[in-house]
């Protein structure tokens, strides 16, 4: 039974473009690296490796795994929470719980982690492994880690630290871990293999031609110095590409930002309206569409869906995003305009992929930068899925100055370099807090486990280790030069942490120990620069206004994008906010954060739809930063500051200022409704939640008839359903 199942599985994977003989390696090799283009079958082999884990978990029950797979229930959990002490990552965790039938063995849990480094969160400092219960009484066995080897991109330091720590743990615990690395084409795949410990067998670097579906690529250049006008000129050619290459098949349009998803979708909708059949991209009955649209919260999405155009980005509420995904996968809508992050996420089928612009706005540098080549290849790989098409088409719309670059280097693999040095202090702080590193020598030893160490030897000039002629002529040993360079790197990183009050050196100037602030930085996953700012600014008598300003000055908000002309929007918003801002800083991400929080607590209308998604990004991080503030105030013994921090946390949670009437925290209650809160008998005004609870208790005699009492007060202002909701809140959800 098991052999037949494996033959079928291998046959399917072979159809995905990878040779059949590789299945043996999947079963036997402990460490693997598979390098091929997107669409070349990497996902199939990834899941083959997971299935191998599931098989081995069954131990003495050879057939158990096959039946478990058939009854697998997949629970997708998006979890943003701190892990154990000294780490505190931000993760998206997918937990597949495979329930074994009666007599088939224990429940198996496979955890696949996607580490996010975007939107100011920085690198993830935690290793998550797949834990498999190997049988009754055997305890957990560390079997497989599935990771993506893209050590040279924005998430590079994340993956580099994860794999380095994994190898470190495996070496010191003498417990073998299986690592499967998946990557697009790279020029130095051998370096990746050496880093992962692959010797003779286990590295597979396939040519770009290894792809199950032929891909036809078109590249077009567009003039224009300014980004937004150039993006607007691409909309008409994108519409023509849809008509020419995929008039009736699914189309993915990748753009660089959430704003561009909206603008592009609206323009495409405007073009199709002028056609003879304006509903040609919609493949579902009107009455069914009307029912679905009535549940959509995003106004732009509601408008575009009626013409068969979907919008997909992280700023949508989960319900809207899932609806768009289902409609596109089920071919109910033909066009999906999405941000580039979708290319690395859900695998949606599409015959045509349009990449509208190869630049994105980097909030940290305040300018537009190019997408990595790997991202462009990943987006192209979404065209022509094997199970849907026999050919795929990719249309790349670029700045005319970069057209020849993409023609020449699109299929030319680039070497992967390490970017660990840029964020080394934060990683080193986490290792010091965890106890992995307790001296400068141990910090040097830690670096030898990283990919950075291997590339430093191969390409020293890239990392600032100059091959000067004087040292060479003087007979300087290259090994000594590298050792000295690494010592300088460690000294610089520890010096930065010491200046940020995160670590302290011992009397011997070699040992290093984490401070309380260093533990707070690692536990709440904050940059050491933020901790330094709080240490030097937070006082025992700080005011609420200054505390709010200090929150927005955190380093985590430095990457909040300030787009074109948003400095003018910030100036307009500042006139409505209660707290003043520096008029010279309207183009600062920290000023924008300050204004967004004020507008959120004042409940002001925002000047742009993009500000809604930006507000969500700001709120996602605010409580974590405030919790670190609270711990710092508590450790310093500042009771007033700690209480003020808690008040600010409640203000952000309730979206109200501390001076607002507490009745405004109830659902549907606005300042215009407040006069209706009066005692039915005495007509005395009710000014707070405690007074409201006391009034209801006096009316009902202590019985739970809150809805009736509220109806007496608010029956003329609110509906019965709204009053029932308020009653549930005041009763504590009972």
UniProtKB/TrEMBL annotation:
Molecular function in Gene Ontology: ATP binding; helicase activity; hydrolase activity
Domain Helicase C-terminal, residue spans: 234-432
Keyword Repeat listed: no
Pfam families: Helicase_C (PF00271), Sec63 (PF02889), WHD_SNRNP200 (PF23445)
Entry's Gene Ontology cellular component terms: nucleus
Keyword set includes Kinase: no
Taxonomy, superkingdom: Eukaryota
Transmembrane residue ranges: 21-38, 45-69
Gene3D superfamilies xref list: P-loop containing nucleotide triphosphate hydrolases, Sec63 N-terminal domain-like domain, Winged helix-like DNA-binding domain superfamily/Winged helix DNA-binding domain
Keyword annotations from UniProtKB, A to Z: ATP-binding, Helicase, Hydrolase, Membrane, Nucleotide-binding, Transmembrane, Transmembrane helix
Coiled-coil residue windows: none
Name this polypeptide is given: Activating signal cointegrator 1 complex subunit 3
Source taxonomy: Eukaryota, Metazoa, Ecdysozoa, Arthropoda, Crustacea
């Amino acid at each position: 039974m098991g052999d037949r199942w494996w033959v079928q599985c291998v046959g399917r994977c072979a159809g995905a473009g990878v040779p059949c003989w590789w299945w043996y390696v999947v079963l036997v090799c402990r460490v693997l690296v598979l390098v091929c283009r997107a669409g070349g079958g990497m996902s199939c082999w990834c899941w083959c490796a997971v299935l191998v884990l599931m098989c081995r978990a069954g131990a003495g029950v050879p057939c158990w795994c096959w039946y478990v797979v058939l009854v697998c229930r997949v629970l997708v959990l998006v979890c943003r929470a701190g892990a154990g002490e000294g780490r505190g990552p931000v993760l998206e965790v997918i937990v597949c719980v495979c329930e074994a039938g009666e007599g088939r063995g224990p429940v198996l849990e496979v955890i696949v982690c996607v580490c996010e480094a975007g939107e100011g969160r920085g690198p993830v400092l935690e290793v998550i492994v797949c834990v498999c219960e190997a049988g009754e009484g055997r305890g957990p066995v560390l079997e497989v880690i599935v990771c993506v080897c893209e050590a040279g991109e924005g998430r590079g330091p994340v993956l580099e630290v994860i794999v380095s720590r994994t190898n470190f743990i495996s070496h010191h615990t003498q417990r073998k871990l299986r690592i499967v690395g998946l990557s697009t084409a790279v020029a130095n795949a051998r370096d990746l293999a050496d880093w992962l410990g692959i010797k003779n067998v286990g590295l597979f670097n396939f040519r770009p031609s290894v792809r199950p579906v032929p891909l036809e690529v078109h590249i077009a250049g567009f003039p224009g110095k300014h980004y937004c006008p150039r993006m607007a000129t691409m909309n008409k050619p994108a519409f023509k590409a849809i008509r020419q290459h995929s008039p009736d098949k699914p189309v993915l349009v990748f753009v660089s930002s959430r704003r561009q998803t909206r603008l592009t979708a609206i323009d495409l909708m405007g073009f199709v309206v002028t056609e003879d059949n304006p509903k040609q991209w919609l493949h579902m009955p009107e009455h069914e569409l009307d029912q679905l649209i009535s549940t959509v919260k995003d106004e732009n999405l509601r408008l575009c869906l009626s013409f068969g155009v979907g919008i997909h980005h992280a700023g949508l509420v989960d319900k809207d995003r899932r609806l768009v995904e289902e409609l596109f996968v089920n071919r109910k809508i033909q066009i999906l305009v999405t941000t580039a992050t979708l290319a690395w996420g859900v695998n949606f089928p599409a015959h045509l992929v349009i990449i509208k612009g190869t630049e994105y706005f980097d909030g940290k540098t305040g300018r537009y930068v190019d997408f990595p080549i790997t991202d462009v290849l990943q987006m192209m790989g979404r065209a022509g899925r094997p199970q849907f098409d026999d050919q795929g088409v990719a249309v790349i719309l670029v700045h005319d100055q970069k057209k020849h670059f993409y023609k020449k280097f699109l299929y030319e693999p680039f070497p992967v370099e390490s970017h660990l040095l840029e964020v080394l202090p934060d990683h080193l702080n986490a290792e010091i807090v965890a106890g992995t590193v307790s001296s400068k020598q141990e910090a040097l030893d830690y670096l030898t486990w990283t990919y950075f160490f291997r590339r430093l030897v191969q390409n020293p000039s890239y990392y600032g280790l100059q091959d000067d002629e004087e040292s060479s002529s003087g007979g300087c040993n290259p090994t000594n030069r590298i050792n000295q360079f690494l010592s300088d790197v460690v000294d610089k990183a520890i010096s930065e942490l010491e200046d940020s009050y995160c670590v302290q050196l011992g009397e011997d100037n070699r040992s290093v120990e984490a401070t309380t602030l260093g533990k707070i930085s690692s536990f709440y996953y904050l940059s050491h620069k933020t901790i330094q700012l709080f240490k030097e600014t937070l006082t025992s008598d700080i005011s609420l206004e200054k505390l709010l300003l200090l929150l927005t000055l955190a380093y985590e908000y430095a990457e909040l994008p300030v787009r074109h002309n948003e400095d003018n929007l910030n100036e307009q918003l500042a006139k409505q906010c209660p707290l003043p801002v520096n008029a010279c800083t309207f183009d600062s991400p920290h000023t924008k954060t300050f204004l967004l929080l004020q507008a959120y607590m004042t409940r002001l209308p925002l000047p742009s739809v993009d500000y809604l998604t930006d507000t969500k990004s700001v709120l996602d991080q605010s409580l974590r930063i405030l919790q670190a503030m609270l711990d710092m105030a508590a450790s310093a013994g500042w009771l007033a500051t700690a209480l003020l921090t808690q008040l600010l946390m409640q203000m952000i949670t309730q979206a109200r200022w501390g001076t607002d009437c507490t009745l405004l925290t109830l659902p549907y209650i606005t300042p215009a409704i407040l006069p209706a809160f009066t005692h039915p008998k005495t007509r005395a005004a009710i000014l707070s939640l405690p007074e409201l609870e006391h009034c209801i208790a006096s009316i009902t005699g202590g019985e739970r008839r809150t809805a009736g009492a509220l109806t007496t007060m608010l029956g003329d202002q609110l509906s019965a359903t709204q009053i029932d909701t308020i009653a549930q809140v005041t009763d504590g959800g009972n």
